[in-house]
Amino acid sequence: MTLEIAMTGFVALYVFMLAGFAGWVIIGNVPAILHTPLMSGSNFVHGIVVVGGLYTLFNATTPLEQAIGFFAVLLGAGNAAGGYAVTDRMLAMFTTSNAKPTHRRARARVHPLKKS
Amino acid sequence: MFTLVPQLVIGAADLSAAFLFLFGLKRMSSPATAPSGIRVAGIGMIAAVLASFLYVFTVDAAARPHLLINIALAVAALAIGGGAAWVAGRRVAMTAMPQMVAIYNGMGGGAAGGIAAVELFGGRTHGVTELAVTLLGGLIGAVSLSGSAIAWAKLDGVIKQPWRVKGQQYLNAAVMFATLVVAGVILATASGALGLSTATWIWIFFACALVFGVLMTLPIGGADMPVVISIYNAFTGLAVGLEGFVLQNPALMIAGMVVGAAGLLLTLLMAKAMNRSVANVLFTNFGTVAKARPGAIQGEEKPVDAADAAIKMRYASSVIIVPGYGLAAARAQQKLYEFVKLLIAAKVSVKFAIHPVAGRMPGQMDVLLAEAGVPYDMIFQLDDINDDFATTDVALIIGANDVVNPAARTDKASPIFGMPILNADKAGQVYVIKRGQGKGYSGIVNALFYGPNCEMVYGDAQAVLVKMIEAVRGLGAAAA
User: Model-level pTM?
Assistant: First the structure.
């Protein structure tokens, strides 16, 4: 008995399509002022590649595979840790002039590519 | 049964990670909730990485004898890679953020390329579809790795000039074509059609992909970097998503594709803000177009003393400040806000106007102003502020050039014609802080500088702002 679900053909395409759509909609709502933290934040999110690197390294059998797997984990870990560090630092800097930060949601946002 | 529990835990952790990434990014849509957003995503990442150590219970029989060494390598790689990047990320100056983000993009792409390489060398892919997806992910990841390395070198000033040769597009196309041919050969050898060593072809494939990334990025100039960084962000996301498919890991697929879509959206936004297509940014040599037009503009640049400009602003009722890359280069954001606070204390209404492609990556100016302590409700984007210039007394332009060039509105022959600009020229008085009389990066003459309402303050932005602060302070002292 196994828990693996075969992600083949159309199932994979459905996952890609839905994820791409979700990304497009969510990111479209981020105001331009946050574009740099957004980019480093999404940068951090693709650091999940480190999980794939770990899987590959654990299953490595030859010195070449071990060497490449090592670098994949090294780079992936750097991507994730660094992406988090800079994003967290940048977001902590954004403040309002009001003492209490208000939730600035009042104005309905148009998707940025739809503007004019 | 022995592998069932680990699989269950890994599955649950990856599912939570995918959810937390999406939820975290969603919270980034407002500066107020954004800090919690990244923390939520961080929890997802830690959960996924810790759970992935349970993979050791599921490894193939062939890998079992190497398992202890592999675990040691994994821990070492996580500690070294994660630790070094963490320290670098904590210490890097905010002005150096674009090159830092470029490095992280390249690292992610390299990791995806590495996964592809191990899968290929180990012959672990089954079937043509899986092999093709592995190759595609490896190609995109490798291009992102070497391309981001060049982008870093350019942003950090290691490479100063764009490298351009005649027929470069043909060279790039040839390398790309060669890469695809080699990919085709690997596909063919896998099904037993060619007798050559597959390993050799895999090396050639990755070498070609890396060379292509270098060639593609070398000719692109500094001001186009917002587009380039966004593209490599999208590339790495795509590569991660594709390798996620190969490894049958939905968390990688979802995270990669979300980032791919995000990067694509930002790329299109940046290209739109320059009124150019993405292909135009990547494949044409921008700076060379401009030289064809000698000065068709009447008048001359009028210099003004920093102190005089400062005093004029002190007695104005409204000022809009337009920052550009020059502010970042001079690291003058703290001095700028010091000056602005003096103006605000003197009851001057001050706003910041940010062009989408100001600086070297999307939103770089917003981050620099935030670092200096400028509240984000003083910062306005192009569409929200452009109509205000006409009713504003003074526009102060610091280290920005093309984004305020009125030629984009009026001069059909100008290479930037049609690009949305900040209408700084419509303000009552324009002051421009600029290093020297030379042209900006793009080599285009700026009609704004020759306008009757414009005066130039020459000098390093930091030094000029210090003089301006002194002038306004001196005024206060004289009055008291």
Answer: 0.86
